[in-house]
Amino acid sequence: MATPPDTLDKVGAGLDALDVPIEAHRPPLWRRFLKTGVPPIIAFAVLLGVWQALWASAVLPEFQLPAPVDVWDELVRSVGSGEAFGILWTSLHRAVFGFIAAVLIATPLGLLIAKVRVVRAAIGSLLTGLQSLPSVAWVPAAILWFGVTPSTIYFVVLMGSVPSIANGLVAGIDQIPPLLPRVGRALGAGRLASARHILLPAALPGYLAGLKQGWAFSWRSLMAAEIIATSPQLGTGLGQYLHNGSSLNDINMVIAAIFLILLVGIGIELLLFRPLERAVLRARGLTGAL
Amino acid sequence: MTATLETTAQSTVDVAVELTGVRKVFGHGSSAVVALDGVDLKVEPGEFVCLLGASGCGKSTLLNIVAGLDGATSGELRLTTSRPAVMFQEPALMPWLTAQRNVELALRFAGVGRPARKRRALELLELVRLGDVADKRPHELSGGMRQRVALARALASTTVSADGAPALLLMDEPFAALDAITRDVLQSELVRVWETTNTAIIFVTHDVREAVRLGQRVVLLSSRPGRVVREWDVTDSSDEVLDEINTELREVISGHAS
């Protein structure tokens, strides 16, 4: 043809060199901290300042709006006496066990709903509906069924988180570009190989989003269950601690409990889900949210 | 209507693919659309055939039938090759796998062991001149490079058979979404790969120039229903053949303006 092959080879090599996207240079650690770590710290400081100012203006009596320093003292006291660790442990281990059980139930359930038409038609919308049902609503029934026992708490946690996780997986599978499983078939993948090497990895971002939401739901369901279902044999979790504070009219305790509940939620998000999500999205070149 | 589909593996034949009276109907009753009607096509081992046609001529359908992704309504398909490999208009690489792992995936489905898989994948990436970027993921590569990874993957899936059956590569407008310069480079790359691997290729396109440049034989399909209208031997292509095919293609298309 018109162009000799060597010239085209050179053009090709030139194109390759030009086409490769330039890798974004990662800024140094202190600069990244300045960008992502400092704004929330400032926001927190502002919040504290507003709180302090409100307290100082005394618009609300002390038993409704305590001074920040009193809440801080309550926190220091409970941490110092070791009480806080016991309370955190009681709640956290329940949440973690409940969450693991929810993942084990929801994953096969999600796969079934996504891949079997009859199952989707039968319970797909029920599962979505359950997501909008506050899991507190299950507490009275669970107490009647299981009594004030750990079973009640686990039941409520499962009802809260299973729908989210299963729905996340279903959404993840639904959003797979149809070309990918087709390519798998063209390459000779069987049903199982296709699920293992194409469907599940392709659905991972959606599944992860479901897991994240599932964790949040299991944590708040746990709090709801612990606040309502209190009994000495259940031990003291964060919910009971909050409940006790309310019973004792001790606003410092109540706010300290809320603070601890938030702390766990934010901690798990920052230490577990965010790094996991980042790693998965970055590997696919989806860096918009980072 | 009965479909007689056979896939026989004979090694002493001079034909890689043979389609006899292939017919494909989508839908039923009054809303049925005949996509292919009595298509006969023979491809020799190692031959490069271009299927040319306007939209709606069922060229993709034909390719899907040969690939085994779709069944014919009636007619006969005979393949003497190993599993045909398919390349689509999009590279359709798995975004979570590196270039090398994407190529390895094809070998994995064929049951090749890990060390052999790795070696073969690197070999094929070298063949399409992408040895240096084996550990890059699709989003780090340009469109042309991705399509070359897809080519390496397709080659992996078809040249894997141990019994020495001839290889067959099916390409569905693989360069249509690329810019002109990249397309030019990839066309010459494909010809080079074809010459070194001795793979039979069925290449679907609507670009007459591309068909004449790449193929040894150009097969023109009519539209709705798709039938073979004419064939040209284009081994030593001249401008006259190009004009002739162009004229014929235009006639086929203008036949639909009523």
Automatic annotation (TrEMBL), chain A:
Bilayer topology: Multi-pass membrane protein
Record localization: Cell membrane
InterPro entries in the cross-refs: MetI-like, MetI-like_sf
Entry keyword set: Cell membrane, Membrane, Transmembrane, Transmembrane helix, Transport
Residues that span the membrane, as ranges: 41-60, 95-114, 126-147, 251-273
Pfam families per record: BPD_transp_1
Residue span, ABC transmembrane type-1 domain: 88-272
Recorded family membership: Belongs to the binding-protein-dependent transport system permease family.
Name of the protein in question: NitT/TauT family transport system permease protein
Source organism of the structure: Lentzea xinjiangensis
Automatic annotation (TrEMBL), chain B:
Alphabetical UniProt keywords: ATP-binding, Nucleotide-binding, Transport
Gene3D superfamilies reported for this sequence: P-loop containing nucleotide triphosphate hydrolases
SUPFAM superfamilies: P-loop containing nucleoside triphosphate hydrolases
Domain of life the protein comes from: Bacteria
Molecular-function GO terms, alphabetical: ATP binding; ATP hydrolysis activity
InterPro entries for the chain: AAA+_ATPase, ABC_transporter-like_ATP-bd, ABC_transporter-like_CS, ABC_transporter_ATP-bind, P-loop_NTPase
Pfam families: ABC_tran
Domain ABC transporter: 17-250
Matches recorded under SMART domains: AAA
PANTHER family named in the record: ALIPHATIC SULFONATES IMPORT ATP-BINDING PROTEIN SSUB, TAURINE IMPORT ATP-BINDING PROTEIN-RELATED
Entry protein name: NitT/TauT family transport system ATP-binding protein
Biological source species: Lentzea xinjiangensis
